[in-house]
Design goal:
The complex is a heterotrimer of chains A (279), B (285) and C (253). Chain B is mainly α and 285 residues long. Chain B is built from 13 helices and two strands, in the order H-H-H-E-E-H-H-H-H-H-H-H-H-H-H. In chain B, helix 5 runs antiparallel to helix 7. Chain B starts with a helix and ends with a helix. Helices cover 36% and strands 26% of the residues of chain C. Chain C has 253 residues and is α/β, with parallel strands linked by helices. The chains are: A mainly alpha (279), B mainly alpha (285), C alpha/beta (253). The interface between A and B is large, with 82 and 84 residues.
Chain lengths: 279, 285, 253
């Protein structure tokens, strides 16, 4: 009756699925190895810590390194309190109802908006209407809105994982809701919050479209939040797109990849430390 | 006094909790405010379905870009969805859990790689391959679709893995106890149970593909013409905004915001769709 | 019963949504005595206990009617200070729930919330309460290690010490020994008997033997109703209600 026995279908299926998985992993490996192989040679002390010359054709990437550092920090300074506050409100201060559904729906939608739309919005709202011009602040605020859903979701998940009994104990010991949140809920949700922060930093570092229209692309060190900055991603894009210097483009890409790798490794290390300490 | 402080905390938190939804409204408001006038002036039909995009001449028809975005997105789905779902099934059902625990973070790392890097690899590696073996300019719809297909893999795998992982073990055991092979259990029972989560992952991935800008701008080439083959170069909706924003003024800029409106609407529809599907799953469970 | 009345409960009814979980309970709780509450599962014992520190308020669509007077003040008055109430009425839960922090910090959680900052004072509280809970000798050398590393019995005594650290007037215990071995149980019981000199104690238990061992008075709950309430000796030897006798002798429940 059957052309192929179930046993053979099983073998074929496993083979195909395994091959697909392997292909996915190989692509990942290829991207990382390719960029590092081409770019590692360029990376040296001078490349990292000197100013670029001739539009980036020569010299280093120091200002873009600083820009890449400052922009996520600024975004987090805004988004972290807002995101954690939202998550605390959703989990501890209200019951499920129409309001929470609206807030969740808004968060989900915000998470799906493409970065180019954030760029357009930041450009028209912060840069043009609020007259900030292309600057660190406009970029930071735009990125803050972009990462807000990530922070809200990861924090909410982490808070929900804190056992209900901890709250009961805290209340029964005469704690107010706020004291319970600060002393019991948030400390125990910290690993999850840290993960959200790391994910957000990664997204900020890799972002180009939203940044280029809000923070600009000035190739010098910013003196205040009202100065334009260029991040590594933007710098890399400009170098590659305009064919300024393939060598420096690869170098910048390698620095980017290494930053992302370090960020991920740090996150996992932190998580394991937290978990290890608690049990 | 404490009760008062509590009330105050609650009020402040409520205001904070509204930040996400107010940002969304603010974004919608400004994109629509800038973008809709020209659509009204030109007429929506002409804006969406005419093929002339000549900003200097005041002609703004985005049909070629819509087609390019659709082709690129569909191509990306054809490549990314099967690979991603296959990976999710394999990692959940056919290897030990420890492998999943190691591989999943690695795949999520793939999501962390900046899109400009993907684009650059498309330009340096993929485009020459296509040019030499398949013909055409290399920078093409095909190249963009492949790169995007890879870029959406983490979204598909991550959400599908969660959906498949959420299928109760009793379903598996039930199927296996009836003498099914592992694969029969997967395609007869588990995929059906996890179907809504998998579909949601595909829809969300589609949203990401349509919205992706930097990789596409680098890889798809830069031709505002109706594409006839996947080997043609083309320019998507997002790429047009990114390309021309810096130099656009007046009606040209309005037209770019109007493209933003179109994107915004598409994404909202896709997201609402995915939300409904995912919510359906949780209420049924 | 000549002792001073601590809690005076009048016609207390409680509802979870539509379901009535307590039916017009009227009961006095005297000071410096141990009241044992017995009854089968889901008879309303725990719900009753949690109305006394208003912990049920945390449950959505919970509602209570009637009066609960603590020192003649109705704790269900809208402007009653609930946080203050919970400081006066401490609670030990069925499963020991040490907060994920050190032994020292677990015990000083309540006092620190109340504003005690002085380190020596906090240390004195830790020593005094751990001794009262018969735990001091076992943990005095590792006060700063995680409370999660203690055994179940030790954890429950820590929870008792944590409640005592707030210097409450009433201590509520919700089946505190349900997960413990006989030796740990004996230690908790010993501590309770010693503590009634200073506190009013209400002990919910599903172990009738335990009530007969430590309680001065006993109340029997069944399906949300208070069937009988009296001196422990009387309840266990000459129950007035048939159902009480049946439950105690193990004929149902």
């Amino acid at each position: 009756m059957r052309l192929v026995s179930p046993k053979w279908t099983q073998r074929i299926a496993v083979g195909v699925l395994g091959a697909a998985t392997l292909a996915t992993l190989l692509i990942l490996l290829f991207i990382i190895v390719f960029v590092l192989e081409k770019g590692l040679r360029t990376i040296c002390w001078n490349f990292l810590f000197t100013d670029p010359q001739d539009m980036g054709r020569a010299g280093g990437i120091f200002p873009t390194l600083i820009g890449t550092l400052l922009l996520p920090l600024l975004a987090l300074a805004v988004a972290l309190p807002l995101g954690v506050g939202t998550a605390v409100y959703l989990t501890e201060y209200t019951r499920e109802g129409r309001l929470t559904r609206i807030i969740r729906f808004g968060t989900d939608c915000l998470a799906g908006i493409p970065s180019i739309i954030f760029g357009l919005f930041g450009f028209i709202f912060f840069v043009t209407i609020l007259k900030m011009g292309w600057c660190l602040l406009a970029g930071g605020l735009t990125l803050a809105i972009m990462i807000l859903p990530t922070i809200i979701r990861t924090t909410e998940e982490a808070i929900r994982a804190v056992p209900y009994s901890y709250r009961e104990v805290s209340f029964s010991l005469g704690a107010t809701r706020w004291a319970t949140v600060v002393k019991v809920v948030l400390p125990n949700a910290l690993p999850g919050i840290v993960t959200g922060v790391m994910l957000s930093i990664g997204r900020c570092i890799g972002e180009t479209a939203a940044v280029i229209f809000t923070a600009g692309q000035a190739l010098h060190l910013p003196h205040s939040v009202f100065d334009s900055v260029r991040t590594m991603s933007v710098h890399f894009y400009i170098l590659a797109r305009e064919g300024i210097s393939a060598k420096n483009a690869y170098g910048t890409a390698a620095v980017l990849i290494i930053s992302i790798l370090l960020l991920n490794v740090t996150t996992y290390w932190l998580m394991h430390r937290f978990i290890g300490r608690r049990t | 006094m404490k009760a008062r402080a509590e009330k105050l905390a609650q009020r402040i938190l409520l205001v904070i909790a509204l930040s996400a939804i107010s940002s969304l409204i603010l974004i919608a408001l400004f994109i629509f405010k800038e973008g809709t006038p020209i659509m009204v002036k030109m007429g929506l039909r002409r804006f969406l379905f005419s093929s002339e995009w000549e900003p200097q001449a005041g002609l703004f028809g985005i049909y070629p870009m819509i087609v390019a975005s659709l082709w690129v997105t569909l191509g990306a789905m054809l490549i990314g969805a099967p690979l991603g779902i296959a990976g999710a099934i394999f990692l959940n059902e056919f290897v030990p859990k420890t492998v999943l625990r190691i591989v999943k973070p690695a795949i999520e790392l793939l999501a962390g790689i900046p899109s400009v890097v993907y684009g650059f690899i498309g330009v340096m590696v993929l485009a020459p391959l296509i040019r030499n073996h398949l013909g055409g300019p290399g920078l093409s719809i095909l190249a963009a679709a492949v790169i995007l297909g890879v870029m959406i893999l983490p979204t598909v795998i991550s959400i599908s893995t969660d959906a498949i992982g959420a299928v109760p073990n009793s379903y598996r055991e039930g199927a296996l106890a009836l003498g099914a092979t592992r694969w029969q259990a997967v395609h007869m029972v588990i995929l059906k149970a996890a179907r809504s989560g998998i579909i949601a992952s595909i829809i969300l991935a589609m949203g990401r593909a349509i919205g992706e800008t930097m990789a596409v701008i680098m890889v798809a080439g830069n031709t505002v013409k109706l594409p006839h083959s996947v080997l043609n170069s083309a320019r998507t909706l997002t790429a047009t905004i990114a390309f021309e924003m810096a130099s656009a003024t007046g009606r040209h800029r309005e037209a770019l915001f109007a493209i933003g409106v179109v994107l915004f609407v598409i994404i909202m529809l896709l997201n609402s769709f995915a939300t409904v599907i995912l919510r359906g799953r949780t209420t049924r469970a | 019963m000549t002792a001073e009345i601590k809690f005076s409960v009048r016609r207390l009814c409680a509802f979870h949504g539509r379901a009535e979980s307590l039916r017009s309970i009227t009961l006095d709780v005297p000071d410096h005595r141990i009241l044992g509450i017995i009854g089968p599962a889901s008879s309303g014992k725990t719900t009753f206990l949690r109305t006394l520190n208003r912990l049920n308020d945390l449950i959505p669509d919970f509602r209570a009617t009637g009066q609960v007077l603590l020192d003649s003040a109705d704790i269900y008055q809208p402007d009653f200070d609930v946080v203050g109430l919970r400081k006066r009425v401490g609670m030990v839960f069925a499963l020991p729930v040490p907060l994920p922090m050190s032994i020292h910090d677990n015990i000083t959680y309540g006092p620190r919330l109340a504003g005690v900052r002085d380190r020596q004072q906090l240390y004195d509280i830790v020593e005094r309460t751990l001794q009262a809970a018969f735990l001091w000798d076992e943990v005095k050398d590792r006060l700063h290690s995680s409370a999660l590393r203690l055994s179940g019995g030790q954890q429950q005594r820590l929870c008792l010490a944590r409640v005592l650290a707030m210097e409450p007037e009433v201590v509520l215990l919700d089946e505190p020994c349900s997960g413990l071995d006989p030796i740990s149980t004996a230690k908790i019981e010993e501590a309770l008997v010693a503590l009634k000199i200073r506190y009013s104690i209400i002990l919910v238990t599903n172990n009738t033997k335990q009530a007969s061992r430590v309680a001065d008075d006993t109340a029997f709950f069944l399906m949300g109703e208070l069937v009988e309430h009296g001196l422990t000796e009387q309840i266990f030897t000459v129950p007035r209600d048939q159902r009480t006798g049946d439950y105690i002798t193990g004929r149902f429940g």
